[in-house]
């Protein structure tokens, strides 16, 4: 495999998004705005020939993928391959909690009471470590645990023998995962204080050598 072109789309807006709740492995349905947004993204990608599609096994990701694939005019792929490898960060005890409150409990003991403060002073990776420390059950994923899982997702794509060089792959992803990818592979070119929008497009180049960011948070 020389390289694959990944079209990475953040899932459509959900009810937990508008309620400002942490939504990692937990789930809430797409809002009507989220459904409409996924259809709009599908229309923009309608003439891209996808050779494969992947997403997490959360309904918000699967529904977004199906809406985008249903709008496609050139691909035979109509259903995504689902895997827990592509899930959002696991927030443990704080799943479904108010986002600002959870990050306060994680960051305040370290002098950084907001997610933005943690990110700008330390890193998004360190935010994962702080949240696991604050989790009374210590089940939230720290940075190492998170990447061990997510890296298996990219390996799953690489191992697809049906994908030829320069193939196009749709991948439905999540907000903090996209931020994490930009921190790890974006070479400092992107403003990580701005969350990727629901339905936005990020383009990656996946090869045996790693991941290269082509664009981020396109609307």
TrEMBL record:
InterPro entries (alphabetical): His_Pase_superF_clade-1, His_PPase_superfam, Phosphoglycerate_Mutase
Gene3D superfamilies, A to Z: Phosphoglycerate mutase-like
Listed GO CC annotations: cytosol
A UniProt-annotated Pfam family: His_Phos_1
Residue positions of the active site: 11, 88
Keywords: Hydrolase
Entry GO MF terms: fructose-2,6-bisphosphate 2-phosphatase activity
Binding site for substrate: 10-17, 60, 88-91
BP GO annotations: negative regulation of glycolytic process; regulation of pentose-phosphate shunt
UniProt name for this protein: Fructose-2,6-bisphosphatase
Species this chain originates from: Secundilactobacillus oryzae JCM 18671
């Amino acid at each position: 495999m020389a390289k694959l072109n990944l079209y990475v789309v953040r899932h459509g807006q959900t009810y937990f998004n508008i309620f400002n709740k942490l939504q990692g492995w937990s789930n809430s349905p797409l809002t009507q705005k989220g459904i409409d947004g996924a259809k709009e993204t599908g229309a923009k990608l309608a003439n891209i020939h996808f050779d494969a599609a992947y997403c997490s096994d959360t309904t918000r990701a699967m529904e977004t993928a199906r809406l985008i694939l249903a709008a496609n005019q050139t691909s035979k792929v109509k259903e995504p391959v689902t895997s827990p490898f592509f899930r959002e960060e696991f927030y443990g005890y704080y799943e479904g909690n108010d986002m600002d409150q959870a990050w306060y409990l994680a960051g305040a003991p370290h002098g950084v009471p907001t997610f933005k403060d943690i990110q700008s002073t330390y890193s998004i990776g360190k935010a994962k470590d702080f949240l696991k420390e604050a989790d009374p059950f210590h089940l939230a994923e720290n940075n190492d645990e998170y990447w061990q899982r997510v890296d298996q997702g990219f390996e799953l794509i690489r191992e697809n023998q049906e994908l030829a060089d320069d193939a196009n792959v749709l991948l439905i992803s999540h907000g903090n995962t996209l931020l994490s990818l930009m921190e790890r592979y974006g070479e400092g070119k992107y403003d990580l204080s701005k969350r990727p929008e629901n339905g936005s497009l990020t383009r990656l180049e996946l090869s045996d050598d790693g991941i290269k960011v082509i664009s981020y948070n396109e609307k």
